[in-house]
Amino acid sequence: MLNVFQNSEDWPVVDPLPSYGRGRELPGRRHRSLIYGHNLTDVIITGDNGTIDGQGSIWWDKFRNKTLDHTRPHLVELMNSTEVLISNLTFLNSPFWTIHPVYCRHVIVQNVTILAPLSSPNTDGIDPDSSNDVCIEDCYISTGDDLISIKSGWDEYGISFGRPSTNIIIRRLTGRTTSAGISIGSEMSGGVSEVHAEDINIFDSRSAIRIKTSPGRGGYVKNVYISNMTLVNIDIAIRFSGLYGEHPDDAYDPDALPVIERITIKDVIGKNIKRAGLIQGIKGDSFVNICLSNITLNVSKKKPWNCSNVKGYSELVSPEACVQLNERIFPDHFSDCYQLPDLVRSSSSRNRAAWLLSW
């Protein structure tokens, strides 16, 4: 076990990310991550099922007591790096987000366990941020915030920096959280697209799939395909929030509206679900081409769906989807729904295998 011990009073402080303009929790600079690298190529962080303990309780207490001077550090942050492999390790008790590849490309996180108390604040599991060609597979995560959260910058800073997250593959993920299993946002101002998730098992969690955005974010979330999910004991299975709020400062443009479109969710089974969906877009900026297919949820709420400012299609959904999504997908509107290209999985696998064999 690697114990990453730190005196929080003296822990180094670095500049904020340019796509955020400030620390995520507090204005100004931020604490450097406990394991850090930038401008690297061919990075391997691995071990024979070893453990890295971030000892985050020091930082959680400062957060709760409102005694932080700067944003808490991540456990692992790699910036502007390429060909990254993180595998066969357990990460414990991150002070803040656990694994944060930002401005990276060609990243694989596999066979990783991430654990933190459910009460620990903002201990996201894996947060690809303004990064492309990312594969997350065969992971177990149990934390106090989103298991996976895909991001790309915050309001005017993310819009100006303009680096999207794209080509994100998530498969064979299991976990639980006080927040969402797979989340996009809320910082998504540089855009998020081509997200493919499959074979997902989420239990004892607040929500399974969540998109978070707000007026002022700009950017887009499009071409998302999530399939083959098993859900147990979930408060809200599918949740889209168009008025999430949280802005870095008062300089954001409230007329910078996000584009949310072509989101497909299919082949989902859920037991002990309180509400099937809470899908709330933005007035004058509807979320469109939201497609649901082959979803069966055992729901306890009398009103299983609550939808507003959203348009889309559904088929074989039980309980029946809200009226805004009840047009049939096939055949009239098949082209409006994002479909996973047949070549995506095979080409991604070939590229990943070639890359790994080259090391």
TrEMBL record:
One of its GO terms (molecular function) is polygalacturonase activity. It comes from the Eukaryota. Gene3D superfamilies: Single-stranded right-handed beta-helix, Pectin lyase-like. GO terms for biological process: carbohydrate metabolic process. It is found in: Secreted, Cell wall. Transmembrane segments: none annotated. It holds the Pfam family Glyco_hydro_28. SMART domains: PbH1. Keywords: Cell wall, Glycosidase, Hydrolase, Secreted. InterPro entries: GH28_Enzymes, Glyco_hydro_28, PbH1, Pectin_lyas_fold, Pectin_lyase_fold/virulence. Belongs to the glycosyl hydrolase 28 family. This is Polygalacturonase. The lineage of its organism: Eukaryota, Viridiplantae, Streptophyta, Embryophyta, Tracheophyta.
